[in-house]
Amino acid sequence: MPSSPFAPLPVHFDSREIIPAQRMRFLRSSRLKIVAALFSVLMIAILVLLLFPKLLPTVQFASWALFVGLLIGFAAVVALFTWFFPWLDFTQNATYQTPFTMHMTDQELVLSIEGKHRATTIEWKRIRRVHENAGAYVLYLNHESNFLIMPKSVFASKPEAEVYFRQHLPL
């Protein structure tokens, strides 16, 4: 392993860092934007049919109940994905219950599970995009479904390590 200016740093996942990062990841996802755009078009079409019933008089499905029901349904789905599923993922995903060690070099980021000989190596140049909030960095590799959440608490005892980390990110 190439040399690093820092000793390996312990990585422990805390719900106060991971859940908001998962929430941010969902709210910034392209899938949500596509679904919201399609939903908006559908809602506008229903609204136009409700406000101007003579446009298509044979359309029987347009009603205010349908409009309000779809709106409530969409809001419920977004609420589930924003509040419930990040919590569920944190509590059920074994990755967040496993202590890791992070080692940084000029070429790569290495994550090791404590007590295991195998490690995951991520070259800095493979990180395509980064989102950041108060508690974590979300590192996207090839696609938005291929990501790594790095809690900022990793750097609490070594702020200079966070500066080194940030220098290698495409911010």
Please sum up the structure shown.
The chain has helices spanning 15-27, 30-51, 64-92, 159-167, and strands at residues 9-11, 100-104, 108-113, 119-123, 129-132, 136-140, 147-151.
What is the radius of gyration computed over CA atoms, rounded to a whole number of angstroms? 22 Å
Spatial gap, N to C terminus = 26 Å
Coarse morphology:
elongated
Average per-residue pLDDT, rounded, comes to: 91
Strand content: 15-25%
Which structural category fits the helices and strands?
A: alpha+beta
Oligomer: single chain
Which range best describes the helical content: under 10%, 10-25%, 25-40%, 40-55%, 55-70% or over 70%? 40-55%
Task: Kindly describe this structure.
This protein is an alpha+beta fold and 171 residues long. The chain has helices spanning 15-27, 30-51, 64-92, 159-167; strands spanning 9-11, 100-104, 108-113, 119-123, 129-132, 136-140, 147-151. The strands form 2 sheets. It has a 4-stranded antiparallel sheet with strand order 1-2-3-4, with no helix packed on it. Strands 5-6-7 form a 3-stranded antiparallel sheet, with helices on one face. A hairpin with a 3-residue loop joins strand 2 and strand 3 (108-113). The radius of gyration is 22 Å and the shape is elongated. The two termini are 26 Å apart. The mean pLDDT is 91.
